[in-house]
């Protein structure tokens, strides 16, 4: 398992955000911030500098989860796990387009959550290593 991570949760449904926070805390991680919209996340991200972000696809406001994830990937070096209750082809394609490091399907359990974190962090590190090697 990866060491303790500083995590940001972007989720507009408080009960889901609190459940995810509890699960992450039980796994030994520190949830630094929980916000309910993409705009709030973008205003806070440079201040809290999380190691990992969980983001819901459906968010209120100007930016949905996919748009927010895309912006974060373009401007910050932080792995993102997309959270969704929908597994349609369109959702999966959008997750690929925004370069997310992982997808967590709701409902989830702690074992699935731990596996997805490990996989996302590993994928993110491998992708960055390939990018750095390519730049040389």
Notes on the structure:
There is one protein chain. This protein has a single domain (6-135), classed as Rossmann fold (3-Layer(aba) Sandwich), CATH 3.40.50. It has 5 helices and 5 strands. It has helices at 14-26, 38-48, 65-75, 89-97, 110-135; strands spanning 6-10, 30-35, 52-56, 80-84, 102-105. Strands 2-1-3-4-5 form a 5-stranded parallel β-sheet, sandwiched between helices. Helix 4 (89-97) links the parallel strand 4 (80-84) and strand 5 (102-105). Helix 2 (38-48) packs parallel to helix 3. Residues 131-136 have low confidence and may be disordered.
Q: What is the third-level CATH name, the topology?
A: Rossmann fold
Structural class: alpha/beta
The separation of the N and C termini measures: 31 Å
Query: What is the helix tally?
Result: 5
Q: Approximately how much beta-strand content do the residues carry?
A: 15-25%
The quaternary state of the protein chains shown equals single chain
Low-pLDDT runs of 5+ residues are 131-136
- Helix/strand order, N-terminal first: EHEHEHEHEH
Shape annotation:
globular
Total strand segments: 5
Average pLDDT value?
88
């Amino acid at each position: 398992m990866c060491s303790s991570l500083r995590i940001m949760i972007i989720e507009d449904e408080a009960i889901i955000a609190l459940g995810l926070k509890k699960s992450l805390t039980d796994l030994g991680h520190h949830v630094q911030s929980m916000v309910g919209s993409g705009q709030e996340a973008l205003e806070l991200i440079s201040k809290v500098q999380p190691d990992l972000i969980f983001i819901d696809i459906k968010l209120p406001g100007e930016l949905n989860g996919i748009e927010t994830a895309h912006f974060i990937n373009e401007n910050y070096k932080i792995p993102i796990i997309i959270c969704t209750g929908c597994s349609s082809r369109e959702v999966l394609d959008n997750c690929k387009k925004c370069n997310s490091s992982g997808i967590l399907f709701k409902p989830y359990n702690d074992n699935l959550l731990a596996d997805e974190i490990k996989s996302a962090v590993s994928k993110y590190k491998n992708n960055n290593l390939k990018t750095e090697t390519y730049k040389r």
